[in-house]
Amino acid sequence: MHIDIISIVPSLLDSPLNHSILKRAQDKGILSVEIHDLRPYGKGKHKQVDDYQYGGGAGLVMMPEPLAELIEKLISIAPYDEIIFLTPDGVPYNQSKANYLSLKNRLLLICGHYKGIDERIREKYVTLEISIGDYVLSGGELAAAVLVDSIGRLIPGVLNDGTSALTDSHQDQLLAPPVYTRPSNFEGMEVPSILLSGNEAKINAWREEQAIQRTKTRRPDLFEEN
Q1: Alpha-carbon distance 83 to 85, whole Å?
Q2: Is 62 helix (H, G, I), strand (E, B) or coil?
Q3: For residue range 1-41, what is the model confidence (pLDDT) as tens digits?
Q4: Longest dimension (CA), the chain
Q5: Sign of the C-alpha dihedral, residues 23, 95, 219, 203?
Q6: Cα–Cα distance measured from residue 101 to residue 191, given in angstroms and rounded to the nearest whole number
Q7: Are residues 204 and 172 in contact, defined by beta-carbon separation less than 8 angstroms?
Q8: For residue 154, which of 97, 223, 197 has the smallest C-alpha distance?
Q9: Which of 112, 135, 150 is nearest to 9 (CA)?
Q10: CATH topology of domain 2-152
Q11: For a Cys staple, 86 with which of 140, 157, 171, 221, CB 3.0–4.6 Å?
Q12: Does 183 sit behind a cis peptide bond, omega within 30 degrees of 0 on the bond before it?
């Protein structure tokens, strides 16, 4: 999979994309991520990429021309399965959407900044608008990092154990059950004996029951959807 990201602050993405699982995925050639700095496409001597909004109001808006020029350049290289704008008024992001996007070959993520991007860019180019939560960030870079991480780990070969992602919270509309590791006795707190039994069928049944109970208690909204 290849993911392009447009940003006016590309350095914000350096650390999230160049460590741990995402770095290994890129080193293996399973995932490639390229960040494109919008600033060189800005207008005039100062490479302006934002301006005041028509009609007045606080906050600057990212201008359409620089974005359009860069998007057209990227589109000319190869078509995208989705062109995604990260925005607080997008559709809520969830595991189902991560699964959907992980099956694509080529994605473009547009990181907004200031008050957002000119609406005409959204109308002309954007095919999917995503929000990672009901709150506002200073820009779309952190949201883009969330998308890349959640999508990348689902690509076959990225995780050492290919079944690991399939047992994560939200994959089946349930939260994950409790997990334990050594020692079996920590300050008098014992690991549930069923997990030490070696009986795979009983362990799986226990985990399913725990997942259901945890979801009912912590996220009843998910259980109702189930």
Answers
A1: 7
A2: strand
A3: 999 999 999 999 999 998 898 998 999 999 999 999 999 99
A4: 71
A5: negative
A6: 37
A7: no
A8: 97
A9: 112
A10: Alpha/beta knot (3.40.1280)
A11: 140
A12: yes
| Token code pair at residue 70 | 């860069």
Alpha carbon 193 to its chain's center: 37
Write phi, then psi, for 92 (nearest 5 degrees): -60, 135
Q: Which amino acid is at 26?
A: Q
The residue extents of the domains of the chain are: 2-152, 169-225
3-state DSSP assignment of residue 177: coil
- In the chain, which ranges are continuous DSSP H helix? 14-17, 20-27, 64-77, 95-102, 119-124, 141-152, 200-218, 220-225
* Structure confidence by residue, pLDDT tens digits, 169-182: 556 788 889 999 99
Sign of CA dihedral 181, 183, 185, 187: negative
DSSP 8-state code for residue 84: E
Taking each helix axis from N to C end, the angle separating 141-152 and 20-27, rounded to the nearest 10 degrees, works out to 60
The pTM assigned to this predicted structure is 0.89
Query: Is pLDDT of 212 > 60?
Result: yes
Structure tokens at 50: 């934002």
Q: Which tens digits make up the pLDDT trace of 33-52? A: 999 999 999 999 999 999 99
Q: What are phi and psi of 49, to 5 degrees?
A: -120, 0
CA 8/CA 15 separation, integer angstroms:
16
In the chain the first and final C-alpha atoms are separated, in Å, by 31
32 three-class SS: strand
